[in-house]
Amino acid sequence: MADAEALMLRASLLGGQRTLRMAELVAPTELTVQWGATMGIRHPDGVRWVSPSWPSPRTPPCGAATAQAGSAYAAAAVAAVEHAVARAACERITTELAITQLRVRALRQHWLPRLRQELAAVEFELEELERAEGVRRRWAQHRPGPSTRADSL
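RESULT FIELD:
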């Protein structure tokens, strides 16, 4: 950034305010943020950078010093935008990771113990029902049937 400022100072000293105003007439730079996903988390992944170009690459309208300063500022802007994209991606992933860790902790400390207790209660109930059913079956096998009663009367 310091290089770009030094070049802009040189351009303003060489060409004056007129050349700087002419440089402002160049079309603005267009940025398009590209999105990606890591571990299922959507985040900014890159930037498509469309920088302005002079009508002719050999003859910038505002002088070579201004063109150099513009290129230096463009390079600084590219670095800043790429840094911002990387930082935003890092923040999104870090935030999602923290949220996921909280969810896992809640599952381990609260839900799993409660579900294990309920499972144990249901299994105990099923065992009791099976024992009761077994007792009823054994009782039904040893009990004399209706035909035996009729014969004894």
